[in-house]
Amino acid sequence: TLNVGEKPEAQCISHCNCFTSSISPVCGSNGVTYLSACFAGCSRTGKTQTASNILQNLTGCACISSESGPATVTTGKCPMPGCQEVFLIFLCVICVCSLVGAMAQTPSVIVLIRTVSPELKSYALGLLFLLLRLIGRT
Q1: Using 50, 70 and 90 to split pLDDT, how confident is the model at 136?
Q2: Looking at the record's lineage, which domain of life comes first (predicted)?
Q3: Helices (H), ranges, the chain
Q4: End-to-end alpha carbon distance in the chain
Q5: For 76-92, what is each residue's pLDDT tens digit?
């Protein structure tokens, strides 16, 4: 965990001059995301060719303790399990709330028009729409 304004201090990168001003996240073979390959302590570059493209792997990473094979990193953040499912649940909840809010707007206007005296209707409609905007309905 890195706090704002702090520079990571680890024994494995004490000889490196890593900068926090440029962030290029890498995913270590241990499942941890590092700010850059420098912060993972990587020293060598290797290339792996797959059927679709060429991947660049950095090896010789001193800060990664890996029991299964060599300590390497690949470019990009490590995938977080469950993140996509949580986003889809959030999206569904927002859609349902928006639908309910939109369905409640027209009946509230009708009720207001029928119950408020004629000389106060414009004032009441103005207040209603102000309150609807304040609580987030459109």
Answers
A1: low
A2: Eukaryota
A3: 83-115, 121-134
A4: 40
A5: 888 888 888 999 999 99
Distance of CA 100 to the CA centre of its chain: 27
d(CA 120, CA 124) in angstroms, rounded, equals 6
d(CA 96, CA 119): 36
Q: What would the 3-class secondary structure string for 111-124 be?
A: HHHHHCCHHHHHHH
Nearest to 42 by CA among 22, 31, 57, 21: 57
Residue pair 76/28 in contact (Cβ under 8 Å)? The answer is: no
Give the amino acid at 33.
Answer: T
Tokens coding 81: 């399990």
Residue 87: partners with Cβ closer than 8 Å, 6 or more residues away? none
Contacts of 28 (CB under 8 A, 6+ apart): 34, 40, 61, 63, 64, 66, 71, 72, 73, 78
